[in-house]
Amino acid sequence: MTNQPPKIVIVGGGAGGLELATQLGHKLGKKRQADILLIDKNRSHIWKPLLHEVATGSIDADLDGVVYSAHAAKHHYNFQLGSFCHLDSTNKTITLSELKDELGHRILPQRHVSYDYLVLAIGSVSNDFNTPGVKDHCFYLDSNQQAERFQHALLDNFTRLHQDDDPQQALTIAIVGGGATGVELSAELYHVSDMLKMYGLDKMTAKRLHIDLIEAGPRILPALPERIANSAKRELVKLGVTVRESTQVKEATENSFITNNDAIIKADIMVWAAGVKAPDFIKDIGIFELTRNNQIKVNQYLQSSVDETIFVIGDCCAFTQDDGSQVPPRAQSAHQMAQCVEKNLLATLKNNPLSVFTYSDHGSLVNLSRYSTVGSLMGNLTSNSFFIEGKIARFMYISLYRMHQRAIHGSAKTFALWISEKVLRVVRPKMKLH
Ligand SMILES: Cc1cc2nc3c(=O)[nH]c(=O)nc-3n(C[C@H](O)[C@H](O)[C@H](O)COP(=O)(O)OP(=O)(O)OC[C@H]3O[C@@H](n4cnc5c(N)ncnc54)[C@H](O)[C@@H]3O)c2cc1C
To answer: Could you tell me which residue ranges the FAD/NAD(P)-binding domain spans (predicted)?
Structure first.
């Protein structure tokens, strides 16, 4: 009888899943102590907090993305392209949907993949709360493809405005959701509009951009301290953004949002960036205990509450802390959960006791493009946070991405990537123009 190594299947190669696959590849895959398989519905990874920069063309996902198959070959795990749609926990098998090409032709039929241990790291999507018209008329920024679709619409509108000699004509963009995505996207849009003059679109300037940022709650950045929200709001207003707080959208039409007070906010481009939920198909799997946002409830070791061989990390995981609050859906949470599950899988294979997950909030940062960065950091000795702004905040914000790069590439390659980014900034256009 052959002694097969245990098979660990990670579904979702995002902020949490890709870091976990890399680390398990090095610690187990390399010595064939376990067979590590990463499954993602995309061929390449882009760190999700960068999606608003993909949407504005500030970065090019084709150049900055990590191609899973190449990464897997270097880091001792396997990669399979596929979209997870069903789970049979009794037979320890997951189902991947039929794989189709862009024209809808079948590449592969539905497939089944077996596992000994499963890690679900499939992230989250925006929650439109079934608001009428939103699915048909709004852009979302949940994936690379959606961000690229937005970028193409943006370029088309820049081109249209550049040809329009009437200076009164403006490009109007309405964004629902005053969280980090909406706030960062608003600032980034002013930044790229300001750069167009360098590339021959000199009649489409930031002065012809009008953004409405719509937030249902009493203030933008509701999850962050008030001081950060006030500072971000001041900066947005200075740029020209109309910040509409306490404004609830009840419907989206082809070119406008309609609010609860029946006010009409017209826009050429409409974005839905409010609310977070785990993908709806999780409900259909039927075995998990879920929150109302479809997040899977877990125990203190990040094992699903119904099956100890299934771990859950990142945005799709509902971890309740001692004070009753949920761990927020952030990149730092996904990173910390990946580290804990790495430890727990290693311990499981050695029959050692598991580690309890504790979330450390290191603070929050909001990047308003080149205009400002604001945020709070948690003190090491006290649980109080302190406010930071400007260059230090910007440095800390960039460090978050570097930490993710280090976790998936190692220090030497992260340094090489940093150098090559500096060089490419000189030889490449500063924004994606196609
Ligand atoms: C524009 C924007 C800005 C943000 N800024 C910040 C920030 O500044 N700081 C911060 O901490 N957080 C930020 N966030 C939140 C942060 O990106 C997420 O919390 C984090 O990415 C969650 O990591 P994850 O691994 O759970 O999911 P993700 O990183 O979203 O990865 C999920 C992966 O699962 C794959 N997947 C999904 N469904 C399936 C399926 N059915 N089958 C196979 N694969 C699947 C996806 O393709 C993806 O690769 C931001 C989010 C957005 C959208």
So the answer is: 7-338
The enclosing domain of 79 has a CATH number of 3.50.50.60
**Whole-number pLDDT of residue 193:** 93
Are 7 and 116 contacting, i.e. CB atoms less than 8 angstroms apart?
Answer: yes
Domain enclosing residue 82, as ranges: 7-124+278-349
Say how far apart CA 265 and CA 374 lie, in whole Å: 28
CA of 410 to the centre of ligand 1 (A): 21
Whether residues 238 and 287 share a domain: the answer is: no
Q: Extract the residue ranges of the chain whose pLDDT is less than 70.
A: 1-2, 379-383
d(CA 425, CA 268): 31
Secondary element (H or E) of residue 86: strand 84-88
> What element of type H or E holds 203?
none
Looking up tokens 């992230």 gives 123
8-state DSSP, 142:
S
* Inter-helix orientation angle 391-409/331-349, to 10°: 30
Q: Tell me if 278 sits within 8 A of 293, measured CB to CB.
A: yes
- State whether 153 and 252 are in the same domain: yes
Best residue among 45, 330, 398 to mutate for probing ligand 1's pocket (most ligand atoms within 8 Å of CB) is 330
Q: Whose CA is nearest to atom 39 of ligand 1?
A: 122
Cα-trace Rg, the chain: 22
Q: Whose CA is nearest to atom 14 of ligand 1?
A: 49
Render pLDDT for 95-112 as a digit per residue (tens, 0 to 9): 999 999 989 999 999 999
Same domain, 389 and 340: no
Q: Report phi then psi at 390, rounded to 5.
A: 80, -145
| Nearest atom in ligand 1 to 185's CA | 1
Question: pLDDT tens across 240-295, in order?
Answer: 999 999 999 999 999 999 999 999 999 999 999 998 999 999 999 999 999 999 99
Binding-site residues, ligand 1, Cβ < 6 A = 11-17, 39-42, 45, 48-49, 51-52, 83-84, 121-123, 141, 180-181, 279, 314-315, 329-332, 334
Q: Scan for tokens 């920024």, then name that residue.
A: 141
Percent of the chain with pLDDT over 90: 79
pLDDT digits (tens, 9 = 90+) for 211-252: 999 999 999 999 888 999 999 999 999 999 999 999 999 999
Of all protein residues, the one whose alpha carbon is nearest to atom 29 of ligand 1 is 14
pTM of the model: 0.94
Evaluate whether residue 174 is within a structural domain: yes
Q: How many CB atoms lie within 10 A of CB 79?
A: 22
